[in-house]
C-alpha cells in the first residue's frame, strides 16, 4: 500500500478513534452539601438580635469543582469525575446560614457581604482549616471561628473558638462523603447557634 493511501485511511479513521476515546470516559457525578441541623428546630433563642454570618474561608485546595480526599501521608487525591454541583466556599456559607435559621427562633440572619450601613448585633467569621475524607473512613472538619458581640455602648467583644468534628464516611462512597460533610457542618452550626444565644 502506498504511503498516500495509508495517510488517507488514518485521516478517515481519526474521527472514529476520537469518538471512541470520548465515549469511553465515565460521566461526571455531582454532589451537594445540604443543610442538616443537628438540634431541634427553633431551640436556640436569638430574640431580636441581628446576626451576620461570614466570611467563611476555605482552604485553597477545595477551590475546585472536583472532590478532594486525603490519601496516605501528606497526599491529596483529586477525583476528576466526582464533583461538587456548587463551589464549596459559597455553599458552606449557605448551609451554615440555613442551619442557623432552622435552629433559631429568628430569621434576622444575614450572609456576608452585606450593605455598609448594616451593623449586626452578633457576627460569626470563620476559617475552615481542613475539610475532607481520609483513608481512615471518616470526614474531618477542623475550624477556627470568631464570635463578635456588640454591647449597649457600641463596643464589640470577641471570642475565638477552635473545634474539630469527625463523621463516618466509607472510603470511595462519595455520596456518603457529601452526607458526612453536611452532618459535620450541622454540628458546627449548632455550636455556633449556642454561642450566639449565650453571647460568647
Quick recap of the structure?
By secondary structure, the protein is α/β, with parallel strands linked by helices. It is built from 3 helices and 8 strands.
Q: What this model shows, in words?
A:
This protein is α/β, with parallel strands linked by helices. The chain has a single domain (27-198), classed as ABC-type transport auxiliary lipoprotein component (Rossmann fold, 3-Layer(aba) Sandwich). The chain is 32% helix and 32% strand. It has 3 helices and 8 strands; from the N terminus they run H-E-E-E-E-H-E-E-E-E-H. The protein has helices at residues 3-24, 88-103, 174-198, and strands at 29-31, 51-57, 66-70, 76-84, 109-111, 122-133, 138-150, 156-168. Strands 5-2-6-7-8 form a 5-stranded mixed beta sheet, with helices on one face. Strands 1-4-3 form a 3-stranded mixed beta sheet, with helices on one face. Strand 7 and strand 8 form a beta hairpin. The longest helix is centred in the C-terminal third of the chain and has 25 residues, at 174-198. The chain is elongated and about 65 Å long. 26% of the residues are buried. Residues 6-11 have low confidence and may be disordered.
Amino acid at each position: 500500500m502506498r504511503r498516500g493511501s495509508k495517510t488517507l485511511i488514518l485521516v478517515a479513521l481519526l474521527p472514529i478513534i476520537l469518538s471512541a476515546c470520548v465515549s469511553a470516559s465515565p460521566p461526571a457525578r455531582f454532589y451537594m452539601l445540604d443543610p442538616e441541623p443537628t438540634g431541634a428546630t427553633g431551640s436556640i433563642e436569638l430574640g431580636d438580635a441581628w446576626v451576620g454570618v461570614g466570611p467563611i474561608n476555605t482552604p485553597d485546595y477545595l477551590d475546585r469543582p472536583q472532590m478532594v480526599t486525603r490519601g496516605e501521608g501528606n497526599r491529596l487525591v483529586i477525583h476528576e469525575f466526582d464533583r461538587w454541583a456548587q463551589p464549596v466556599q459559597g455553599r458552606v456559607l449557605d448551609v451554615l446560614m440555613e442551619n442557623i435559621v432552622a435552629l433559631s427562633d429568628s430569621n434576622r440572619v444575614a450572609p456576608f457581604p452585606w450593605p455598609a450601613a448594616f451593623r449586626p448585633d452578633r457576627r460569626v467569621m470563620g476559617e475552615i482549616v481542613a475539610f475532607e475524607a481520609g483513608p481512615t473512613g471518616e470526614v474531618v472538619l477542623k475550624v477556627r471561628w470568631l464570635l463578635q458581640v456588640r454591647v449597649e455602648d457600641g463596643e464589640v467583644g470577641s471570642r475565638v473558638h477552635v473545634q474539630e468534628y469527625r463523621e463516618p464516611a466509607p472510603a470511595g462512597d462519595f455520596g456518603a462523603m457529601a452526607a458526612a460533610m453536611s452532618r459535620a457542618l450541622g454540628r458546627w452550626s449548632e455550636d455556633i447557634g449556642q454561642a450566639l444565644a449565650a453571647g460568647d
